[in-house]
Amino acid sequence: MKIALFGYGKMGKMIEDIAVERGHEIVARVDQAGLSIDYSNMDVAIDFSMPDAAFDNITGCFRNGVPVISGTTGWLQRYEEAVRICRETRSGFIYASNFSLGVNIFFELNKYLAGMMSQLEEYKVEMEEIHHTQKLDAPSGTAITLAEGIIEQGNYKEWKLDEEGKAIVPIYSKREGTVPGTHTVTYKSSVDSLEIKHTAHNREGFALGAVVAAEWIVGKTGVYSMKDVLNLK
Ligand SMILES: NC(=O)C1=CN([C@@H]2O[C@H](COP(=O)(O)OP(=O)(O)OC[C@H]3O[C@@H](n4cnc5c(N)ncnc54)[C@H](OP(=O)(O)O)[C@@H]3O)[C@@H](O)[C@H]2O)C=CC1
Ligand SMILES: O=C(O)C1=N[C@H](C(=O)O)C[C@H](O)C1
């Protein structure tokens, strides 16, 4: 498979290593806006760039018939617009705030737990995410997906950064050293706490998930999720 990398930083480089190990070829490395890009030779694009670059990278690929896997976070205010352009151009698209197998299982566990806890008024939820100090966005995309999974169970209306309230899922973001990504969801009552946690030990799980998603999307049109790729029920 011929893969184009949009974003050639920490993730782009790790994706390159894993893609090459799996027998793929990297045909483009795009790391700034405004470059002249030859889309004719790409089977699929993988975008791990920057919040203000992702939308143009993704939709540029759609308009040139290239399906996209995007893991860039912090650009989702334009997600629906990207989806519309994907459908209009009959392209293929997967966005995931987190491509690792472990976190995608954690997303499902979180929803299941939130469903049970929604019956118990004595517990109040809160979340914490810890990442490296170079991270541009807060809260993390993963924390937002987790919060949305809790909100869809009905007891909470919105998430907020560093803010508590009856119908609010508070998210506390910490930036420390080189931490690849740690997410904790905690339910507290006056008598105990119940906690689920995912700790990434490095970035390999994210990169492998993105390459597996790229292998999966080639030849398909439409908008999918990692749940489809991993066939999680
Ligand atoms: N979904 C997931 O599983 C994961 C998502 N992420 C997300 O992926 C993104 C990238 O993370 P990471 O690799 O750690 O970040 P880095 O900062 O290491 O890499 C981002 C790269 O994008 C480059 N860039 C700048 N402008 C553009 C542009 N217009 N088009 C393409 N590339 C550009 C930067 O170049 P320069 O430095 O020269 O500006 C940099 O090399 C982040 O949004 C992060 O949150 C990260 C890990 C997992
Ligand atoms: O910026 C990162 O590093 C990461 N970003 C993603 C996020 O915002 O959730 C995924 C992972 O946690 C690493």
Automatic annotation (TrEMBL):
Q: What does the record give as its pathway?
A: Amino-acid biosynthesis; L-lysine biosynthesis via DAP pathway; (S)-tetrahydrodipicolinate from L-aspartate: step 4/4
Gene3D superfamilies, A to Z? Dihydrodipicolinate Reductase, domain 2, NAD(P)-binding Rossmann-like Domain
Query: Does the keyword section mention Secreted?
Result: no
Q: What keywords tag this UniProt record?
A: Amino-acid biosynthesis, Cytoplasm, Diaminopimelate biosynthesis, Lysine biosynthesis, NAD, NADP, Oxidoreductase
Q: Which residues bind (S)-2,3,4,5-tetrahydrodipicolinate?
A: H132, G141, T142
Main location, first listed in the record: cytoplasm
Q: Which HAMAP family did the record assign?
A: DapB
NCBIfam families the record matches: dapB
According to UniProt, the name of this protein is: 4-hydroxy-tetrahydrodipicolinate reductase
* Organism of this sequence: Zeaxanthinibacter enoshimensis
